[in-house]
């Protein structure tokens, strides 16, 4: 055995504890902001919920708005994805169900809270803009593919996205019932039928 190997410090695995701590802090932030809003949460509560020391939060995010913005961006991926199975109706239905499920999570509630004017700090507003841009871009790619395949006439993908996602936000935010697959089927069916029926004919 080579001399001195036993005296070497253990190699640090990529990510390791630091990555776990950051993930715990971001998850705790999303949950607390969903409960108390951007202005209402405290670093002490973030640390307690994340199971870390308060200094770990301050050291990584000395600015609370930066912490909120990163939490928003970290947990936004699932809300900004649209599958491509070759069946546009099915893909949009699944997208709406994923959106509804995401909005019911602490992160989704965080996103809805952050949209309120009282929480429109420049940093948070930029994060929201990036999340919305990602969602629009993903939907545009799927719609453009459908148009290229002849599944759909040329259409403004942003308008289509607003038409199908609006009812999801309305039903979820009311909190009176869950947004179900039957809801998604009806919304997508009506919107796609309307787009096809009103498309200009050559």
From TrEMBL:
<keyword id="KW-0805">Transcription regulation</keyword>
<dbReference type="InterPro" id="IPR001647">
    <property type="entry name" value="HTH_TetR"/>
</dbReference>
<dbReference type="InterPro" id="IPR011075">
    <property type="entry name" value="TetR_C"/>
</dbReference>
<feature type="DNA-binding region" description="H-T-H motif">
    <location>
        <begin position="42"/>
        <end position="61"/>
    </location>
</feature>
<dbReference type="GO" id="GO:0003700">
    <property type="term" value="F:DNA-binding transcription factor activity"/>
</dbReference>
<dbReference type="InterPro" id="IPR050109">
    <property type="entry name" value="HTH-type_TetR-like_transc_reg"/>
</dbReference>
<keyword id="KW-0238">DNA-binding</keyword>
<feature type="domain" description="HTH tetR-type">
    <location>
        <begin position="19"/>
        <end position="79"/>
    </location>
</feature>
<protein>
    <submittedName>
        <fullName>TetR family transcriptional regulator</fullName>
    </submittedName>
</protein>
<dbReference type="InterPro" id="IPR009057">
    <property type="entry name" value="Homeodomain-like_sf"/>
</dbReference>
<dbReference type="Pfam" id="PF16859">
    <property type="entry name" value="TetR_C_11"/>
</dbReference>
<dbReference type="Pfam" id="PF00440">
    <property type="entry name" value="TetR_N"/>
</dbReference>
<dbReference type="GO" id="GO:0000976">
    <property type="term" value="F:transcription cis-regulatory region binding"/>
</dbReference>
<keyword id="KW-0804">Transcription</keyword>
<dbReference type="InterPro" id="IPR036271">
    <property type="entry name" value="Tet_transcr_reg_TetR-rel_C_sf"/>
</dbReference>
């Amino acid at each position: 055995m080579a001399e001195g190997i036993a005296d070497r410090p253990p190699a640090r695995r990529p990510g390791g504890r630091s990555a776990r701590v950051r993930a715990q802090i971001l998850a705790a932030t999303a949950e607390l902001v969903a409960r108390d809003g951007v202005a209402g949460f405290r670093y002490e509560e973030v640390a307690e919920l994340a199971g870390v020391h308060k200094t770990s939060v301050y050291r990584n995010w000395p600015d609370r708005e930066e912490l909120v913005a990163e939490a928003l961006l970290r947990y936004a991926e699932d809300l900004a994805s649209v599958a491509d199975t070759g069946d546009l109706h099915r893909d949009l239905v699944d997208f709406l169900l994923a959106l509804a499920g995401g909005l019911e999570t602490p992160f989704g509630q965080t996103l809805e809270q952050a949209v309120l004017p009282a929480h429109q700090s420049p940093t948070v507003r930029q994060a929201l803009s990036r999340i919305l841009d990602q969602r629009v871009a993903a939907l545009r790619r799927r719609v453009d593919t459908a148009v290229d395949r002849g599944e759909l006439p040329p259409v403004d993908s942003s308008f289509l996205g607003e038409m199908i996602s609006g009812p999801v936000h309305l039903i979820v935010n009311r909190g009176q019932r869950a947004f179900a697959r039957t809801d998604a089927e009806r919304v997508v069916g009506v919107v796609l039928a309307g787009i096809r029926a009103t498309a200009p004919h050559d």
